[in-house]
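Fill-in record for Glycosyltransferase RgtA/B/C/D-like domain-containing protein.
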Amino acid sequence: MPAFRGSPLRTRFTTGFFRAWGTAALLFLLPWVVYGSTVSLRYGLRDDYAILREAREEPGKILRVCGAMGRPLYGWMLERTTRAAEDLDGLRGLRALAVLGLGLLAVVLYLLLRAEGWKQVPAALLAAFIPLIPSAQVVANWSICWPQAVALLASAGAFALTRQAIGTDGAWRGGARGRLLLVGGALALAASTLIYQASGPFYAVLLAAVLVTRRHEDLRAPARWLFRHVSVLGVGLGLAYVVTRVSFAVGMFTPSPRMALERHLLDKAAWFVTQVLPKALALTAIDDTDAAPAWGYWPMVGVTLGVLLLTLVVEGRRTGRAGVATWLLALVGLTGVAYCASLLAGERWPTYRTLFALAGVWSVFFFAGVVKLGEHWPRHGPRVAGAVLALLVAVSGLLAHQQSLELFAWPQLRELELMRQGAAALIPERTPRVFVLTARQTDSSAPQRYLDEFGSVSVDTEWVAKELFAFSARERFPDARVRYRFDAGPVLPQARAYDILVDMRQLRTTTSRPIQLAR
């Protein structure tokens, strides 16, 4: 036995074991390092303040609203956690849950990639990259988005179950156990979709990761394999849709107008190619609503397309038409699968939180393309490819950290501070008239803005202004009931119409203070 303990076999086993789980531990910690600073800050974003109040004062409302949009599990999770959160300190806890989910997602992705034949370094780098993309930044920095991390984990878990029941040639296997695995995978996909519809198709990310690692002499084998998996995905999504429609039919929830299906699919496809796909191709660079995107946005789109085009050429020389056809099948097919929920929905709102699966699919192809190009130069290519991908992950981590502060936390802290200044002017013994001059999105103090996510202004509507001022008043006078008459709008009324003015259009002014008039 002493000789066995020192044997090369045992040494290789223990070294591999500790290397794998050491890598997994580092991947779990990475999102905490990147997003930890924003988790610790006390801020809310847009809907956060209303949901905090509704969870406390209107039990069941959050579930009804989310259920009306086909997300009952999202509503159930959000209502219970926000009720426990209570205040801004609690919102930090919700963001911590999101970061926890992203860390677990990185570990799960790494283990699945290794199980499907990815080498150690590319698998670790891709698993590290996915929690850093813009879609992940939204999940990590917007408190109410934390259930999306659970939905992504459920989708990845569905693949982990289903892969054991479908052979590499696309044949069913496993007998009764295989059928149970398929049922479990479909149920996990349904649960993921009932949390957030756009997260269920994250399954496609792992399908892409498998297809790019296998070499096929005949296109029929990967096509059959892909068809089997997409069928399971379709069953899961379909089951979620049936559950949603039944909940509407029995009166459990009232369907939202946002549940309408798209009627002009060709027009939607053109919109997808021009307005959505470039955001996924840009990988770690983000778009801008008010101006031209940052300097790296379109170059990154070009780099991604260039890498994939070169990869197709290299694959054509190495594996012939079958290899190129497999990649094209995966590229086109899985792009549609990854965004299928949003393509079928009548709404056209290309937010990054709906792009997670799509961006993940193209990230897989980009990483696999760089690896394959490196293999074309056997002597130094793999090391160069690893260095390029490591540099991309490092830059993405720095960007994710910086954007979390500059485009999420700090702008929201400025809005909160203006409201706190207004609430500080309240006198409990009086009933002043308060007017909040709502901001325009162009008043954002952030250096960049995209829709209602990155750099967005929260107080651009009356209902957000009302919720945030009420929150600030409760925070300022926790033990006293403060009365005031509130109004808000985009146009400044006459001076006699208010006693306290909170001008949210001063966000860009560092020394801004609310205007107080004589009572």
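KEY FINDING: Strands lie at 433-437, 485-489, 500-503, 515-516.
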